[in-house]
Amino acid sequence: MEIGRLSDTIEFRHEDITRTVLPSWLYRHLKVEIDKLRREFITINRREDEINLYG
Description:
This protein has 55 residues and is of the alpha+beta class. The protein has one domain (2-54). The chain has one helix at residues 2-30; strands at 38-44, 47-54. It has a two-stranded antiparallel ribbon with strand order 1-2. A hairpin with a 2-residue loop joins strand 1 and strand 2 (47-54). The model has no long low-confidence stretch (mean pLDDT 83).
């Protein structure tokens, strides 16, 4: 379905931009230092969830 692919593309670009911008924003406004944000998969109660911005 074309709409699904468009949504995936927009979401991917949004995550990339956020990974780049968010660490400096967090430091500037909240004095929180994050070296790098990444995608991570975690398991809670035998259910795997994707965390798009893990730092």
